[in-house]
Amino acid sequence: MRGYLAPLILLFVACSSGDKDESTSSDMAQGLRGWRSNVDRVNPMIGTTGTDPAEYGGMIPSVAPPFAMTRWTVMTRENWVSRLPYHHDDKKIRGFIGTHQPAIWMGDYGYVVGMPGVGEVKAGAEARSLAFTHDDEIATPYRYSVDMTTGGGQTLKAALTGTSRVGFLRFDFPEGPQPHFVLEATRANITGNVHIDPEKREISGYNPDRQDDKLGPFKAPGFKGYFVARFDAPFESFGTSTGEALHEGENDRTDAAAGAYVRFPAGTRRVQVRIASSLISVEQARQNLDREIPNGRSFDSVAKATKSAWSDKLDRVDISGATDDELATFYTGMFHALQYPSEASEYGRYYSAYDDKVHEGESYTSYSIWDTFRAENAFLTLFAPERINAMMTSMLHDYQEGGWLPMWKNPTETNIMVGTNADSLIAEVINKGFTGFDLNLAYEAVYKDAMQPPERDTELRYRDREEGTPVEARAGLTWYKEKGWVAADHTAESASRTLDYAYEDWAVAQVAKAVGKEDDAKFFLERSKSYRNIYNASTGFMQARNYDGSWAPNGWTEGNQWVYTFDVMHDVPGLIELEGKAGFTALLDRHFGEGHNNHTNEPSHHIAYLYDYADQAWKTQAQVRAIAESNYFNRPDGLSGNDDCGQMSAWYLLSSIGIYPVNPASGEYAMGSPFFKKVTIRLPGQHRPLIVLSPNNSATNKYVRAAYLDGKRIAKPFLKHSDIAQGGILYFDMSDTPRPWGGE
Question: What are phi and psi of 601, to 5 degrees?
């Protein structure tokens, strides 16, 4: 009786508070609460360092609105593949960079760097560097500031904010030495252009560098990252540079390591520069500047607008029963997850690096789909549903211009990672009710993924980052179609590919159903059972197989047999049948008990939730709490693994409210253990909030005695997206005692 009356009483209380919430805007709600925006709880330093030089959070303290095309950040080191422009352990600042680098394992493209200085002009990155300390550094999602120490021991103050395509830099120079500004367009061996127009107080140009240009077949010979930098102070003198060399009085240069510099009149104390970016043209960059930060618009007004853009998302969520560190972890997770994929279109037009042309329409890039199909996309369907249809349309543009859906787009196909998990993204949003894109074209694209092997499929092994290959798509599909598995003696990472293709077949079947292709749907559902072909019954593990059927070693993508044996996200009951329920749960117990779970990498992210399918949900609840407590912290090394375009953060965000998409394409969530006593989420476009209640929640009360949705008891630990997407009251009755789901 007690377990039923409690949620009814709380349902009345929550509904009353929900009515108040839905009658107020986000800004009004802030005023009623009487405290700062949740944006000010974000710690952009989380994930900026770690014990391993590359295997850490891989984040930067960037300023820009959600999904921005160009993010601006302080630059403490030269960035390239597996190295970001900011690292918390560095002691000097080399510049301020407008970057498009989406993740640490990817390269940057079309970037531009600016750096203030005093006295003698020094164009080289090391020579122009200035010392700083974290005590003089303030980072938020909308404004960054730092004090730097000049060679003469004086303080040069810098502040940074930005819009989606324009960075706004403000510098306060010390008295005495003449102030100047250095702009770096390209680096050694990269030929770019700079042009100085002293009458307009502008430096413009382009940078054609794509650090991932050796990957994938699309070479985009016309690619350039264009920029226009406009100053509010006159130039006393100027020149161009090539590396360290200065060319006084020159106003145009096309060269390797191209740069420009301007000196301001002696006594100038404050200079502001707005640097616009474009992938279309210099003129488009100038239009972006005039549209986003026109002449006369103040630095503070831009910072306020960018803060407001973040507040519109982060202030939709109120949390009770969390520590300050937990709040910082949560809202920083939202900050990270709402950056990707990033905008690539510029007011109705976009440059496509697939066909090297400018098109009309909307476009996104930074598609790290092997990572983000797992939970990041599910997070976006709840927290940014207004973007979903355009994101799907963008992938269909990529298909039309390049022949395939994207795998890892940056800004064109890089062939990094395995599988065609765009199939999953499309199936997921269809199963969640999104239909504002061309469904028939989407089916054409996923059908091609599933049925057409990539070029030279029988010749190439398609190793990780193998150069000179066609679009990888489902490498080894030839063998998968013939044998039922990808042959290890022909194709790299074959076992992981086999499991991926089985899951993706299930996703393709969902798209087939949506367009009325029932026979196709049956075919792909049947083929989605191919995972069974690499199950080794004698060991109880998945294992790679050669073309002749013999077992083979290795064959995994960033994992091992422990991780990938559980990688049957679309048919967990079928996997349990193979293992036997007792064997399945025993294997899970060993997986966690013997330390095989590796939360720093994505293939492990769903495994803790698999106990739900084997009637041991209390173990899911304990493991989810343990994973969160040991992998997420409010400190610079607070992410145990690369955030990978929001996936690490999305795991935490969804898990914290008690749900996770084990099979993302299904539109269903498995249930775990919520972290906080109350979370109120004002979902975009909905009048009713989603309120997650667990009032007796604590570090010890981590087990779910029972759960209710709008007062109705949830019989099994699963929810559909449609159950919560329009709001509601999700109530968890928590206990300190492990018990079966719904057991008294």
Answer: -130, 145
Its pTM stands at: 0.95
The pLDDT tens digits of the residues spanning 249-285 come to 999 999 999 999 999 999 999 999 999 999 999 999 9
d(CA 335, CA 348): 26
In 3D, which of 381, 314, 321, 332 has the Cα closest to residue 27? 314
**Residue 698 burial (CB count, 10 A):** 11
Bridge partner list, 117: 180
What is the number of alpha carbons within 13 Å of residue 618 lying toward its C-beta? 17
Q: Could you tell me the end-to-end alpha-carbon distance of the chain, in angstroms, rounded to an integer? A: 10
Tokens of residue 611, six digits: 């106990």
Q: Give residue for tokens 């304990």.
A: 622
Residue range 606-661, pLDDT digits in tens: 999 999 999 999 999 999 999 999 999 999 999 999 999 999 999 999 999 999 99
**Contact present, 202 and 233 (Cβ < 8 Å):** no
**Beta bridge pairs of residue 192:** 255
Beta strand ranges found along 69-153 (DSSP E): 71-75, 92-93, 95-99, 112-118, 130-131, 137-139, 144-149
Whole-number Å distance between alpha carbons of 606 and 151: 52
Strands 191-197 and 252-256 turn out to be antiparallel
- Please give the biggest Cα pair distance in the chain: 86
SS3 209: coil
**How is residue 168 annotated by DSSP?**
E
H-state helical runs in 146-298: 282-292
